Amino acid sequence: MRLRSILLRTILLVTLALAGAHFEGAAAFAQEAQTQAAAPAPVDTPFDQAAKEIDKAKVQLTALQDGVKQNADNDDALVGLATKADELSRAVITISVNLRPRFDQIKNRLAEIGDPPKDGQPPEAEIVTQERNTLAAERAQINAVTGDAENLSIAVTKLVNQIIEMRRQLFADTLFKRTEVSASVIDDAAGAFVHEISEFSQALSSWAVFVWKFKRFPMFAAIFLSLASALILLSGSYRLFGAYLRRDEAVEEPSYIGRLSIAFWSTLIRTMALSVLLVTSFFFLNGFNVLRPDIAPVIGALFGTIGLVYFVGRFANAIFAPREPRWRLVRLSNLGARSIGYCLLAMAVVNGLDYLFGTVSEAMGSPLVLTVIRSLFAALIIGMILITVSFGKPMLARNGDPDAPGRHWPRGMAIILRVVGASLIIAALTGYVGLARFVATQLIITGAVVATMYVGLLSGKAISRQESFGDTFFARFLTRRFNLGPVAIDQAGLLVGLAIYAVALIIGVPLILLLWGFHVQDLQIIAYRLFTEVRLGGISISLLGICTGILLFAGVYLLTRWLQRWLDGNVMARSHVDLGVRNSVKTGIGYLGVGIAAIIGVSAAGIDLSSFALVASALSVGIGFGLQNIVSNFVSGLILLVERPFKVGDHVVSGTAEGIVKRISVRATEIETFRKQSIIVPNSELINGLVGNWTHRNKIGRSEIPVSVSYNADPQQVMDILLELTAKIPLVMRNPEPHVEFLRFGPYSLDFELRFFLADMGDGMTVRNNLRIEILRRFKAEGIEIPLPQSDLTIHRDAPPVLSNAVKEQTDGRDDPKNKPIEEEERPVRQLRGRTADGSLKS
């Protein structure tokens, strides 16, 4: 019994111990799980994110490849796939670009650490070895990901090229596809046409009833909004270009610029207004769910046909001016202008109706033979119109009278029209209906667009010609509004001409590309690459970045100019800062602002500033040889601006140049002489040479007036008179006081010098001039004579000839006995005759 009790107690203790251990382990596990739950989730490194993006891009590439295989004969689907492939290509490139900073950091750090020690060298620290190995492993991973990205980019580029080739082949197959044309085919097409008309009438009537009952208000709202948009555009255009939208009946002889401008702007703006009306109408009708899926394409084709016919009609009226021969741009008779205009309009109507009926057939599910026969008749009609026009007489008569019967086409033009018309007819009858239809469409629409562009370019050229813009309405408006002079108006004409070039090209080129088979997505890709990824060899240029950099540079530069004016006009002017200091501060801020603006502009343009290191090294070599003088002048200019040995407004003397400093730049200093001549002195000469500055510390300076009187004058009286007259001048300083210096006993006069100080050396000329006038008046009043230079000459007739050395030299070799001896005193001869103070001659 006791043994059993001991055993039970032992088992109980062991069980409790095991249970405690279990609970302790469970608590520890729970605590560890709680700790793991509380710990933050690991953050993906840039390498991990790049790897995930690469895997995602591979999946997208596979999907695109499958889509290309499934839609090999669908051009619209291929366009969408090409757009997605282009986006994928940019995303893959972005992956590599994002890894580049980290790769550069690892490369620089490994360069700092250096290579591992070689055999026999002291071992390095363990932490350095671990860091090198870690960085090397990460660099290898980045290289692997970058390699995958490059391979993926190559694959995407290959897919894009494949899509382009497939689309080109589809276009060629569609264009040169041959269809059999026979009587049975025409009969089948006639039956299909009757059935199509019946189905379309039912669909159109049911849609109209539905709209009138349930969509009446959205339809009127869509029409109202589209009309408002078109009217806003048209009214704004009339306000800006009203003078170029209407022909002035009062003008008898319109200028060439006026005719071109009215033809271009009237065609462009009115067509754009109608296009806005049609596009917004379709957009609002479709947005308000007024259009059914089977009716929407037909309405879109109807709007397109209306726009096409209106554009061709406006173009014909603008170019040929059937009823206003003085505004005509081509040398046609009135009858010829009307006939050609009607023919162009007829061909536009045929093209538009063919396009509209083709859209109806596609919406109604009509057989393809109906579209073929319809295009056949359209090509035949256009070909016959061209041949008929070639036999007309549209050219202006030789006498220049537009009402007179015209002349035949030039032989080359008539042959071209007949050949094109016959080619269309032959191609259509032989089964190449698609080719004939395409050529006919391009003849009309592309021809009208190209002709309008050409007129626009001619308008820009005529307006930008020198002294031509001033006669236009817009130039007169600018003159009245901004008070511009002839030179500014001429420069504005150049800008306006360039703007017209841009408008003509930006509108015309995309239209032509769309007409020749390009899609809107294609134009978007072209525009994106043009503005962001223009590649010249290995250099990638972003036009958008360049434009942004130019705008930022201009903005910072204008801000700098404003800061210069604000500091000069508000801060330094109110503080009465010296003019030279103000000029130095303005110049320094100007150069600093231009430097900052250049750095910001270059960085915004996407140009790596580190790439300028090679340019700087090459420039340093050039400086050492040919640019050292320029750099010397530049550094000297900086020294002048900082040290300020002279400033703007100082009176300086440098070599042969003396005048007032007008401008100090970093290359040269402009000095204006007192004769208003500007002398440009290189700064290095001012730094290395002697420069006298009359107004360096202040404008105080001494001025002198030399005075000479005869020996009969009293010196003290002369000195008193000079001091008395000087004391009456307010501009003469009293301290230091004026004084008179008795300089010398001259050969014929007593020489004095009046010396006085002025607070401003700029007043010296005026003060000296006034003082000289007063001195002359006072001396005349006091009887003090101002002598003229004089000499004494004695002639001896009876004395033997005694010649001086100078006379001997002159008469050496001459033994003429008739020569009379002349003796001259040894003192120098200055003048044979003088004049006394009263005006009488004195020998």
Number of helices: 23
Low-pLDDT parts are 1-43, 806-843
Give Rg in angstroms. 49 Å
Overall pLDDT level = 77
Shape assignment: flat
What's the total count of β strands? Answer: 12
Helical residue percent?
55-70%
Beta-strand residue percentage: 5-15%
Structural class: alpha+beta
Distance between the termini: 178 Å
Plain-language structure description:
- It contains 23 helices and twelve strands.
- Helix content is 66%, strand content 7%.
- With 843 residues, the protein is an alpha+beta fold.
- The chain starts with a helix and ends with a strand.
- GO terms for molecular function: mechanosensitive monoatomic ion channel activity.
- Residues 1-19 form the signal peptide.
- Residues 809-822 have a biased composition (Basic and acidic residues).
- It is a multi-pass membrane protein.
Throw out a few tags for this protein:
66% helix, mechanosensitive monoatomic ion channel activity, flat, 843 residues, MscS_beta-dom_sf, 12 strands, five-stranded antiparallel sheet, LSM_dom_sf, MscS_channel_C_sf, 23 helices, alpha+beta, transmembrane
Quick overview of this protein structure:
By secondary structure, the protein is an alpha+beta fold. The chain is 66% helix and 7% strand. The protein has a five-stranded antiparallel beta sheet with strand order 6-5-4-3-7. Strands 8-10-9 form a three-stranded antiparallel beta sheet, covered by helices on one side.
